[in-house]
Amino acid sequence: MLKESLSLLESMRASSQQPERLLALHQYDILDTPSEQSFDDLTQLAASLCKTPVAVITFVDSDRQYFKSAFGAQMTTAPLEQGFCPFVVEQSQPLVVTDAPNDAKFHSHPSIDAMGLRFYAGVPLITAQGHAIGTICVVDFEPRQLSADQIDNLQALGRQVLYLLELRLSARQVAITNGALTAVSYGLAATVGDTFFGSLVQQFTEALNVDYAYISLIDQTEPMCMMKTIAVCHQGKIVDNFEYELLHTPCKEILERRSLCWHDRELAERFPTVPMIAELNIESYAAIPIFDHRHEPLGVLAVMDTKPLRNPLLTESLLTIFSLRISTELQRQRDQVQQADLLAQAQAARQQAEKANRIKDDFLAVVSHELRSPL
């Protein structure tokens, strides 16, 4: 029995430390936060519906359980080994233990003696991506049963917990996005021309906390074959521009799709024939096409990092908004060149006209003199 219990605990610990599950949990920034009435209302309702003295919303971290709300109990954290919530997370299925000391699987669980726990019912909190990050559960110190309706109610409350988490996450991301947009816009307010492009990629590396940001344009002498950067930033510093072949690169994928593209991890595995990706140890990449006024592709605005990309909402917002700003600036520069060419042509034409007028005046003066002179 001891060997079986140890095996159960080891399996539970391994499940709790899965990297993708932990990333899903940590994105909500919910651990060690102050109590919130909206979560407390749900645990109170869970206890009332299930007629238990205790109800808890638990988030399972890599090495502990964090109790966001605990109705009928005073606790904030506990080791993974204490309680049944980590097992619910491991299985991603509801768990009901009607009488723990007499349960074939959990009769030797340490919570029985440490907490006097007899009854437990918990349902997993599963994100839209399928990661179990915690539970909402009810606990009693006497054996009991739950009806099918009560379990359904508990699952409905679990969905409300996830809804609250998504609301908190959305509000935080909107605040971060607005702050970043303000910071980048302020940093670019007085810049135009080539200075603008350099300032933009610098602002991107800072706002998105990425290693690289760059603007790359299609080489018009070899359309859809070569790309040339016009601004590159590495860890906050402007570095030399470079050119590269477009074939088999993520840039080609973006230009063909004509839309934003996102690779949050394992970029080298997806594009094994691009040496630069492996040489720079690039893990993730996001970019968007830059279009001209006819909606023809000019190039890409891209960010790259040596770690998985975070905050897709902020990244997508910045790329979308400032790709349009880049397009506008490129068009302004082209208009300036065209205006300069037209001005030069007009000046040359005026000089030619003035020269022709001088020749005509000289000719008329000679003819007039000859006509007035006696034979």
TrEMBL record:
Query: What GO molecular function annotations does the UniProt record carry, in alphabetical order?
Result: phosphorelay sensor kinase activity
The catalytic activity of this protein is classed by the Enzyme Commission as: 2.7.13.3
Q: Which reaction does it catalyse?
A: ATP + protein L-histidine = ADP + protein N-phospho-L-histidine
This protein's source sits in the domain of life called Bacteria
Alphabetically ordered keywords of this record: Kinase, Transferase
Extract the Pfam families matched here: GAF
Alphabetized SMART domains for the sequence? GAF (SM00065)
Residues in GAF domain copies: 34-175, 192-340
Looking up PANTHER family in the UniProt record yields:
GAF DOMAIN-CONTAINING PROTEIN (PTHR43102:SF2), SLR1143 PROTEIN (PTHR43102)
Q: What is this protein called?
A: histidine kinase
**Origin species:** Phormidesmis priestleyi
Lineage of the species this protein comes from: Bacteria, Bacillati, Cyanobacteriota, Cyanophyceae, Leptolyngbyales
